[in-house]
Amino acid sequence: MKRIKRRYIGLLIDSDSVFTEREFLDAVWAAIARLYGEYGASQTGLAPISFDEANKVAILRTSLGTLQLVRAAIASITRITGKAATVHVTSISGTLKSLREKNVTNPQGHQKKA
Fold first, then answer.
1. What is the set of domains in the chain, with CATH numbers?
2. Among residues 86, 97, 110, 112, which is most buried (max CB within 10 A)?
3. 1-30 burial string, b = 16+ CB within 10 Å, else e?
4. What's this model's pTM, rounded to 2 decimal places?
């Protein structure tokens, strides 16, 4: 059996509103289903890893083969629960450790220079 390679995606939610993890995930799944249908969504292996409501950052895991599909779907998000929002990919990594090292952020959500 072949091992599935995974990638971790660091995300920043840009909105004046605050969203729960469920609202955010519903928006991501809806965007994927809208672009690629149920079959395409099932191929992503998408899983939430962490969500910080206060800093508006999230980490998702997906399979390497569908990484570009997930990135395109995330870029297509313009509203979450009817409120204006955009989601930006801040970094992508093969391990959580290196993703978290890349995403060293200050309280305003901007990346610090290491």
1. 6-93 (3.30.70.3250)
2. 86
3. eeeeeebbbbbbbeeeeebeeeebbebbeb
4. 0.85
